[in-house]
Each structure stands twice: as structure tokens, then as C-alpha cells.
Amino acid sequence: MTDEQTRRITDLGTLKALAHPLRSQLYRALVVARTATASQLAEQVDGAVSLVSYHLRKLADAGLIEEAPGTQRDGRERWWQPASDGVSIHEADFGDAPEKAAAHQAATRLFYEQRSELYRRYLDERSTWAPEWRAASSDSEALMPLTAAELTELTGELLAVIRKYDEQGRAAQAAGDTEGRQSVALHMYGFPFRA
């Protein structure tokens, strides 16, 4: 995934479209699946197909997802895919008006809560995973004295490593190398705090 393949959300309408609890779940599920129908996604989020279809159309209206070309098997199925390899949202793009800042903060909190829930679910189910997956899973914290410029540099270097592994995994998967592959979530936060 390159920066060009990641869509930077800079407008309030698109942010609000994604920052809906069900829509952000659907978007995440679609990024993992790469293509899916409303019925398939409804099973994953335990929702009604009609409600999921409505929210998928809202994501499409915002340009976050699109119909997947060449996947329709009959006239009733509508297959969807992400419109980019991911999205990025930066506080700097929403700080020029109170409404935009509040929407950005609410979206950030929602995404954090959903990521936390994903990790809590893993912790609850950890014993059901094979030993090699339990050993490979990590939970760490680093407390470092950095400048803002150093944190920016560190984040860029870590994202480059993540992109490398994402591209390798997707290429292998596209080539049919699916043995032993699982969807993996890697959450990374870098922020200042007062001791």
C-alpha cells in the first residue's frame, strides 16, 4: 500500500459517512474481504441485509467503496470493494472550525473503541488460537522521550514497515499462497502524555 493508494479524508461529509458505528465496521470488513455482498457483510456484523445495503450505499455515496467490476453473478447480487487500499484521517484537516474538530474527535474515539473491542475479542478467544499464533501475538508499550519531529519520523518508518508486510501478504494471497494466513490487526498509537 502506497500513500497514493490510501485516501486521505479531508472533508466533513466523508468523515461523517465513515464515522458511523455500523459503517466503519462494514468498511473494515470490506477491506479484509476485498470484495463482498451485502448479505455476506450482514452475516459478519449480525445485521439485517436491508440495513447493511443502505449503509453500503452511504459509503459508496462518499466515495469510500464502489461496486466491484466483473463480480455480479446474477442481477440481484451487488458486489462491493473498497475504493482505495485504506484511508487516513489527520487532525490538521479538521481543526479550522469547531464543528469539524468535534466531528474528528468523535470519529477518532469511535475508531479507538472499535479497535479496542477487536483486541478484547482476541483476548477472550486467545485460547482457541493455535500456539504459534498465540506466540506471534504481541502487546507492548514503549515510553520514550522524543520531540514532535522524532515522533513524526518514527511513525513514518513504522508505517513503511507495515506497508511492506501488507504488500507482501496481499501479493502472496493473490498468487494463491493462503496456507497459514490469517487477517492480522496491528494497532499503533503514538502520542505525548504528561507524567
UniProtKB/TrEMBL annotation:
CDD domains: HTH_ARSR (cd00090). Keywords: DNA-binding, Transcription, Transcription regulation. SMART domains: HTH_ARSR (SM00418). InterPro entries: ArsR-like_HTH (IPR011991), HTH_ArsR_DNA-bd_dom (IPR001845), HTH_MetalResp_TranReg (IPR051081), WH-like_DNA-bd_sf (IPR036388), WH_DNA-bd_sf (IPR036390). It comes from the Bacteria. SUPFAM superfamilies: Winged helix' DNA-binding domain. This is ArsR/SmtB family transcription factor.
